[in-house]
Amino acid sequence: MDVLAIEDLSSLKHIDLSHNQLTDTKAFKKMVNLETLNLNANKLTETSSLIYLTRLKTLDLSENRLTNINSLSMIKNIESLDLSNNQITDLSPLHHLTQLKVLNLSGNKVRNISALESLTNLSVLNLSNNEIDLEQIQVLRAFLNSCDIKY
Hints:
- The protein is mainly beta.
- The protein has one helix and seven strands, in the order ββββββαβ.
C-alpha cells in the first residue's frame, strides 16, 4: 500500500492501517489531529514521525518489529498504548506518559519495569510473556495500587 498518498489528510482523527506491511511512520508526520492510530501487524521498526501526533489518545503498535520506543515519550496525552509482541527491552521512554490508563507490553523482552512506577493513572497493565521477576511486580504494585496488573 502506498501510505504516502494519505499523508496530507491532516484533519483525520481516526485511522486503522493494521495488516498493511508498513515499514515506517513517515506518512503520519502531518496528521497532527489524529486521536486514534492503529498500526497493528505491520513491519515497523521505528516510530520517529509519531512525535508530531501530540493529540493521540489511543495508539496500537502491537505485532511489529519495534526495539526502540524513544519517540513515544513525546506523546504526552496518550491514554491507551498497545506495544505487545514487539522486541522492546527499554521502557524508560514511557516514564513521562502519565496520562496512560491502559498499557499492553506483553510478548516483549522487558526485564526492568521501574520506569512504569510514575504511571499512577494506569488501570490496566499487561506484562505477560516478558522476562520480569516477581519481586519487581510486587514493587510496582506498591506504586500502582489500583491497577490491574497481568504478568
